[in-house]
Design brief:
This protein is 56% helix and 19% strand. It is of the alpha+beta class. Among the domains are: 55 residues; 60 residues, no CATH class. The chain has a 4-stranded antiparallel sheet with strand order 2-1-3-4. The chain is rod-shaped, with a radius of gyration of 51 Å. The relative contact order is 0.06.
Length: 208
């Protein structure tokens, strides 16, 4: 039994129709791209526009042979040949959506999803390698920074030690000066006492 189809526009439902009737309605533009079509009254529904696009896409030739390469700026591209005019073409991951058009002959064709999958896989591999390099550089940079900080800490510690030694030496010198001054003062006192004692003796003899 041939398939039957139902058409819906807004709340209005029509059908069933066979495939030839649907094709004739589309060809005569008696249906709109926004009209809905389904094999049952309950759905699921698909727009006529999507149905036409899918049919066109299935009828297009598919490119299955391609090669990966990089541009001079390092962008990954898929290289392939137009199935119609044999022009050499290439597409980036962003440009490659599967449905392509040749800029030379303006005819449409499909590119195998394997090309997009391979481009994505290669991009992810490159990004992973770049991330590993970035992390290594960051780790090396952090290690250098830590070594620099360690050396600066050692220099500051040495400077503090030298300052402490300078202060200790200055304090020792001050103590030595004070000790010397004390000893000198005691010596002078002893000399004065001795002088006074001698003077007292002289005064005894002078009285006679």
């Amino acid at each position: 039994m041939p398939k039957q189809y139902f058409l819906k526009r807004g709340d209005k439902l029509r059908g069933p129709f066979d495939g030839q009737q649907v094709k004739a309605a589309i060809a005569s533009k008696n249906v709109f791209s926004t009209d809905q079509i389904s094999e049952t009254r309950e759905g699921p529904w698909q727009s006529i526009g999507d149905l036409i696009a899918s049919a066109k896409k299935r009828s297009l030739p598919t490119v299955t042979q391609f090669e990966m390469s990089k541009t001079v700026f390092g962008t990954l591209v898929a290289n392939y040949v137009c199935p119609f005019c044999k022009a050499e073409l290439r597409s980036t991951e962003k440009e490659l959506d599967g449905n392509e058009a040749c800029p030379e002959c303006n005819r449409q064709f499909l590119v195998s999803i394997d090309a997009l999958a391979k481009l994505r896989s290669e991009r992810q591999r490159v990004e992973k390698a770049q991330e590993q390099v970035r992390r290594k550089r960051q780790t090396k940079k952090e290690e250098k920074q830590r070594e620099k900080e360690r050396q600066q800490q050692q220099i500051r510690a040495q400077q503090r030690l030298k300052e402490q030694q300078r202060v200790a030496a200055a304090q020792r010198q001050q103590e030595l000066r004070e000790e010397t001054e004390t000893e000198d003062g005691n010596s002078i006192g002893k000399i004065v006492d001795a002088t006074q004692a001698i003077g007292g003796l002289f005064s005894l003899f002078s009285d006679d």
